[in-house]
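Tutorial handout. Part one gives the primary structure; part two gives the three-dimensional structure as tokens.
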Amino acid sequence: MTQPDELLDSHAAAALIGIKKTTLETWRGLGKGPRFIKYGNTPRSGVRYQRSEVLAWIAQQTFRSTSAYTVAAQRPGAIRGPWETPKPASSGSGAAS
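Part two.
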């Protein structure tokens, strides 16, 4: 029987969400996705996710309509797809050379 606060490694947490482990690791680096526990203060220190935190995060990603999603996607920290990433401003003058 699983416990609600069972600690999951990145692989198990990603599987619960239905994504690749590398995606979860990328989100963690960007401050996205479910909250996690970090053991230690070095880059190689272990990371775990509480099952209850992962399930709560999944519940927060549930919407009744695409318009409800659109409003939620405007929140700070919302996960955006690559098609929604703003393009950097050009540093040129705009004149052709």
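Part three, for discussion. The chain has one domain: 7-75. The first strand starts at residue 7 and ends at 8.
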